[in-house]
Specification:
The chain is an all-beta fold. It contains no helices and 30 strands. The chain folds into four domains: about 60 residues, no CATH class; about 90 residues, Immunoglobulins (Immunoglobulin-like, Sandwich); about 120 residues, Chondroitinase Ac, Chain A, domain 3, CATH 2.60.220; about 90 residues, Immunoglobulin-like, CATH 2.60.40. The strands form seven sheets. Strands 7, 8, 10, 11, 14, 15, 16, 17, 19, 20 and 23 form an eleven-stranded antiparallel β-sheet that branches. The protein has a five-stranded antiparallel β-sheet with strand order 12-13-18-22-21, with no helix packed on it. It has a four-stranded antiparallel β-sheet with strand order 27-26-29-30, with no helix packed on it.
């Protein structure tokens, strides 16, 4: 391997294939070098009598990929497909399914198709299920591959909120949003920070894969994704929700409202979704939304009052009035730059005392706009 004399302190940098796919062999070369005065002792390379020195280096565990699909005939069953990048030891490898802190183990079936394995199991229940695949290769390298998913059943006549496994995505179904009762699964890919899809868009969330074999959406469904906390200092209206294709291409901007900590969109079809940050986005008020409003309404004991500011530095005044027009409390009186804002009113007057139940008005002046919104405090 070396063409010059080496001492014990010398080093050599060589690339080695550690996956077990390259054959290596070792040899020993020896001669007298400088002490061979007569020059009659040539170099001699030996491997030993009848010795076989070929070897492979394999310290990389088999990499597994897990895909889970609903069974098209029986949606309450999941088809688990597992592939590996090398041949595995099927007797040592196992699949573990965990639900509600209970774990069951399953052997891999005998391989019949290029390191692809399939298992069909009943979804253990609604909510989050975690699947761990313990895989070993023939020389003892092992690893665990993990995926979590949410399985939910949604009734057409009943509203329901469902969450992704990390609870960073929420889907809100109202009564009548789907044609008939159905089930749905949500999977998440590994998070890749600041993945750049083009010059201006940066992916800042997991990819959420939402699918169903029996759901027919007939009214738009709200979908909300949390903005990561470490990005709260960025301008919130530059966060956008996109539907994306299987190969990661952007399909449609589904954003309805962006506000601090949360981006909300509406969907008519199930797909994969992700949150992006658009460095070139300008602030604009979403169409079809109230410029001033509150939630919840009716309320007890507190409500959130939201408003949009269009100008770069508009005066804003938010007050609470009673039925006779008397001032109950000033919630805000200052200037705001363009954006979306929320103020929490805790149901107290200017002295910090809880007011009685009844109807009140939010008197809002934002820039050149002036509006009143009725709110009701419950007993």
């Amino acid at each position: 391997m070396f063409s010059k004399e080496l001492s014990l302190s010398d080093t050599s940098h060589q690339y080695l294939d550690l996956t077990g796919n390259t054959e290596y062999s070792w040899r020993i070369a020896a001669n007298n070098c400088w002490c061979d005065e007569l020059g009659s002792d040539p170099s001699y390379i030996t491997t030993g009598e009848n010795a076989k020195t070929d070897f492979y280096i394999d310290i990389i565990p088999p990499k597994g990929s897990i895909n889970i699909l609903q069974d098209e005939i029986s949606p309450e069953f999941m088809n688990i497909y597992i592939t590996f990048d090398e041949q595995i030891d099927e007797w040592k490898s196992e699949v573990f399914i965990t639900y509600d802190q209970e774990t069951t183990s399953h052997n891999l079936p005998q391989n019949t198709n290029e390191n692809i394995y399939g298992i069909t199991e009943l979804f253990p229940g609604i909510g989050v299920t975690t699947i761990d695949v313990e895989s070993w290769d023939g020389v003892g390298n092992g690893t665990i591959t993990t995926i979590s998913l949410t399985y939910e059943e949604v009734q057409s006549a009943v509203g329901k909120n469902i969450y992704s496994p990390s609870q960073t995505l929420m889907m809100s179904f109202d009564e009548g949003d789907i044609d008939y009762d159905a089930s749905i699964i949500i999977k998440e890919t590994d998070f890749i920070d600041n993945q750049i899809k083009d010059q201006d868009l940066h992916r800042v969330s997991q990819v959420y894969e939402v699918s169903s074999v029996n759901m027919d959406i007939i009214n738009p469904v709200d979908l909300a994704v949390e903005i990561p906390e470490h990005l709260y200092h960025l301008e919130y209206w530059k966060f956008k929700l996109f539907s994306i294709s299987e190969d990661g291409q952007l399909l449609e901007d589904i954003t309805s409202v962006s506000k601090k900590g949360l981006v909300v969109g509406q969907i008519n079809n199930l797909s994969s979704f992700a949150l992006y940050y658009d460095t070139d986005a300008d602030f604009e008020i979403p169409s079809g939304v109230d410029l001033v409003g509150s939630y919840p309404n009716p309320f007890n004991p507190s409500t959130n009052i939201f408003y949009y500011v269009e100008g770069d530095y508009d005066p804003v005044s938010i007050r609470v009035l009673d039925l006779l027009g008397r001032e109950v409390k000033i919630l805000y009186d200052d200037y705001n730059v363009a954006g979306y804002y929320e103020i929490r009113w805790d149901g107290t007057n200017m002295n910090g005392e809880q007011i009685g139940s009844g109807i009140y008005f939010i008197d809002a002046s934002v820039g050149s706009r002036h509006t009143y919104k009725k709110v009701m405090k419950l007993k």
